[in-house]
Every structure is written in C-alpha cells, then in structure tokens.
C-alpha cells in the first residue's frame, strides 16, 4: 500500500495541533506530501487580504516541524464552508487519507464530535484518520501497536491491508480482532441444563464451530512472513464497539483501524453505530475506511 498525499485540515486549535503531529508521522513513514488546509468563511473579516496572509503564515508555522524534518508541505487557504472545501480538496488531490481532530475533551463534548469532522467522516470517499485531543490521547509516534477490527466484510478486508502496511512501515505490532455477538449478554451464558439436551448440545457445537471458523479466518488474513511477536488474533464476545475499545485499552494500542460497511441513509447518518461509538470514545486515533 502507498500513501502519496495526506490532507490535514487545521483550525489552529490545540486539538488540530495534535492531528498535525499524526499527519507528520504518517507522512514520514510513507514519504508522502502533506496538504495543509485552513478554510475561511467569505462572510467574515478574515476573508480580507491581510487576514488571509496571516492565516497562511499561521498555517505554515503549524507545520514548521514537519517541514524541518524534510516532509514536503503545501499550505493552502480556501474560502467557503469547511466541509465542502475539505471534501473538494480531498477529491481533487486526490488524497489517500484525511487526518483531522475530533475535538471535544471531556464530559458531554467527548461524545459529540465536531460537526465538521462528523460530516467529513460520513461523506469522505477516502480513509479518514480522526485524532482525539492531545490531553486525551495515549498514542505513541510512530505507532507501536495497531488494532484492526474485522467483521469479514470487504471494508474490513481493506482495513486489514492498511493495518498490515502501517505496521510494516512503523515496525508496529498488529492485532486482528473479531467480535461475536451472541443472542445473550455475556457473561453469563444461558444455563444449558435448562435446555433440552439435544438443543444444548447443538448450541454448544454451533458456538465452537463459529468461534473456530472466525479464528481460522482471522489467521488467514495475516501475512505468512509475520512472526508471532509481530501479529496476533483475538476473538471476543459481546457488543463490537465495547470490545474494540476494551481490547485497545488492554493492549495499549496506538491506532484503531476499522471498515464501515455500506452507504445507505443510516450509514450516512451514523457512519455505522460501531464506528460512531469507537471514534467518539477512543483515546487513540481511529482510521475509518468506507
């Protein structure tokens, strides 16, 4: 996998500054170019020429460390509404990935993404890396441990490819996780003694078969050249978003990668309930792929 162009929108906030760091690390790993973008409303005084120049200088300063490290950075100021300008620029580049902050630090704000970020997540056709505020984040640069959630859809297969590529580029460990949703909340499972023996036996056999099949499919997605220390697979039972966040905490993951299935009206509104919850609550960056 190759990354040539990274689009990194910035509004000069502290949260955006952390996204800049992530974009710079990603660009360094793939020798990619960053396009730094700040969008100014044409209805504000900032649209005047002196103010536009000041915005350009501030944006250039935000990426100075990346430039000094040898990463090519194009600084761009656009007039208009943020979401359409970000999406238009991502399309025209074309961007291989958009890196932007989630905003929100605590309490209610932590569960409400910035409206610009949420709309970009729903509408972008390229992968989007959302970065939590620095005070909330626990990630290391470059990434040391990548967690990839897999539901065996085409989107999650693409997510695995990204996870493997990022792990190889940064020397990170990768864990592939599949979550099984049973019709009961676990723990505990139902009391098998309350079921007819043939039904209980069939249920136990079905569960074992399902778990083994999922494990085999996960292991088949890992490259053969990966050693036991470089990659692992995990199987969990429960609600996907709860288990994804739990494993990310348990293994101190620096990055979560997940695919989003479909583009129907529900997906476009919530970009998938699992993805929605993970992006809002994760303490590390989350890379989503449609």
Can you offer a commentary on this structure?
By secondary structure, the chain is α/β, with parallel strands linked by helices. α4 runs parallel beside α6 (115-123) and α9 packs parallel to α11 (273-281). β7 (173-180), α8 (197-220) and β8 form a beta-alpha-beta unit. It has two domains: 1-137, HUPs (Rossmann fold, 3-Layer(aba) Sandwich); 143-284, Rossmann fold (3-Layer(aba) Sandwich). Helix content is 44%, strand content 20%. The protein has helices at residues 14-30, 49-62, 64-68, 82-92, 107-110, 115-123, 154-170, 197-220, 240-250, 265-270, 273-281; strands spanning 5-9, 33-40, 73-79, 97-101, 128-131, 145-149, 173-180, 231-237, 255-259, 286-289. The model is unreliable at 105-112 and 265-271 (pLDDT under 50).
């Amino acid at each position: 996998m190759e990354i040539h162009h990274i689009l990194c929108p910035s509004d000069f906030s502290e949260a955006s500054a952390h996204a800049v760091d992530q974009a710079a690390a990603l660009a360094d790993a793939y020798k990619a170019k960053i396009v730094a973008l700040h969008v100014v409303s044409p209805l504000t005084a900032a649209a005047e020429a002196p103010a536009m120049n000041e915005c350009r200088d501030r944006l250039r300063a935000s990426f100075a460390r990346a430039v000094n490290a040898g990463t090519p950075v194009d600084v761009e100021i656009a007039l208009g509404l943020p979401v359409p300008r970000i999406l238009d620029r991502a399309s025209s580049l074309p961007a291989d990935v958009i890196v932007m902050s989630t905003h929100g630090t605590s309490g209610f704000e932590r569960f409400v993404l910035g409206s610009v970020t949420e709309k970009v997540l729903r509408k972008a056709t390229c992968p989007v890396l959302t970065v939590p505020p620095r005070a909330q984040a626990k990630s290391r640069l470059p990434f040391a441990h990548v967690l990839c959630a897999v539901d065996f859809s085409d989107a999650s297969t693409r997510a695995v490819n990204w996870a493997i590529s990022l792990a190889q580029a940064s020397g990170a460990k990768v864990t592939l996780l599949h979550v099984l949703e049973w019709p009961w909340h676990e723990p505990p499972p139902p009391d098998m003694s309350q079921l007819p023996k043939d039904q209980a036996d069939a249920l136990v056999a079905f569960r074992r078969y399902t778990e083994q099949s999922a494990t085999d499919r996960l292991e088949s997605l890992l490259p053969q050249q990966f050693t036991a220390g470089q990659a692992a697979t995990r199987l969990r039972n429960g609600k996907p978003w709860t288990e994804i966040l739990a494993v990310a905490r348990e293994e101190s993951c620096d990055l979560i990668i997940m695919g989003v299935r479909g583009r129907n009206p529900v997906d476009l509104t919530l970009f998938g309930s699992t993805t929605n919850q993970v992006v809002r609550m994760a303490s590390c960056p989350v890379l989503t792929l449609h």
